[in-house]
């Protein structure tokens, strides 16, 4: 029996988004666009993108790239599959520069000073016009 259901969406700090001169037309739909938007959102001590290090956040990139943690018949791991390694390499490469970091829990919840302008996050309800 399924426990729950929700979707992963890119959460955007609209104040930072608008301050960077971005519009709805700039909402990224590819990894290259996500990288470029992250660069535009980076300012001072605030990274343009925050990616959590959990399997759910990393798994989103793996699935988007056509991979999965297990092989097709679920009998063995598939971590060496290029679809998995390429996705993880993108996250790793994106996380190295100052344009990306893992945001703190309080920043993700909107409390205190945010450490990232945007981040993927599970959402069980509609996120409005900024949802990808």
From TrEMBL:
Residues 93-107 have a biased composition (Polar residues). InterPro entries: SBP. Residues 93-132 are annotated as: Disordered. Coiled coil: none annotated. It holds the Pfam family SBP_bac_1. Gene3D superfamilies: Periplasmic binding protein-like II. Residues 113-126 have a biased composition (Low complexity). This is Extracellular solute-binding protein family 1.
């Amino acid at each position: 029996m399924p426990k729950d259901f929700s979707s992963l969406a890119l959460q955007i700090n609209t104040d930072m988004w608008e301050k960077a001169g971005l519009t709805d037309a700039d909402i990224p739909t590819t990894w290259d666009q996500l990288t470029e938007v992250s660069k535009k959102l980076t300012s001072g001590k605030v990274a343009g993108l925050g990616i959590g290090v959990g399997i759910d956040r990393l798994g989103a990139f793996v699935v988007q790239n056509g991979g999965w943690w297990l092989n097709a018949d679920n009998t063995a791991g598939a971590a060496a599959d290029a679809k998995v390694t390429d996705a993880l390499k993108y996250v790793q490469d994106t996380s190295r520069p100052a344009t990306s970091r893992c945001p703190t829990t309080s920043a993700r919840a909107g409390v205190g000073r945010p450490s990232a302008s945007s981040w993927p996050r599970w959402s069980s309800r509609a996120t409005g016009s900024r949802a990808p």
